[in-house]
Every structure is written in C-alpha cells, then in structure tokens.
Amino acid sequence: MSNCNNCQSKGLGDTVSKVIKKVSGGRIKECGGCAKRRDWLNEKISYRNNALDAINKIQNMGTQ
Are 42 and 14 in contact (CB under 8 A)? Predict the structure, then answer.
C-alpha cells in the first residue's frame, strides 16, 4: 500500500494512510508502527463488509 496512491482501499487503515499522505504532501512517511496500525485498522474495519457493519464496529470499539 505504501507506494500505491490510486489503489482501492482494503479498509479504514488504507484510507487514513492516503489522507495523511495527501494532506502532508507526502512529507510524512509511513514507518513500521504506521504500517502495523494501518493493517490493524484494515482488519477491524474492512471494506469487504457492508457499510452498516463497518459503522457498527466503529461504534462498538469504545465499549470493548
């Protein structure tokens, strides 16, 4: 994902990564910790599921 700006996002982590790159003009580089967080977010909030499932997961993350 780190070298792919036009690839389809697998989940929320990819989207956050793209936004950070866009807003920072590419000045903020992804480190190992960033990649782990991106992968974790992609796993927890995957775009393979429908949108309502993703919203429910986000809302329930604070209660776990």
Answer: yes
On average, the pLDDT of the chain sits at 84
Instruction: Please give the tally of structural domains in the chain.
Output: 1
Per the structure, the complete domain to which residue 28 belongs is given by 12-61
With respect to residue 3, please indicate whether it lies within any of the assigned structural domains. Answer: no
Residue 22's nearest CA partner among 39, 9, 40 is: 9
CA distance 18 to 1: 9
Report the distance separating Cα 14 and Cα 41, nearest Å.
8
Q: Tell me if 34 is assigned to some domain.
A: yes
Residue 4, pLDDT score? 64
pTM of this prediction exceeds 0.85: no
Backbone angles phi, psi at 11, to 5 degrees: -170, -170
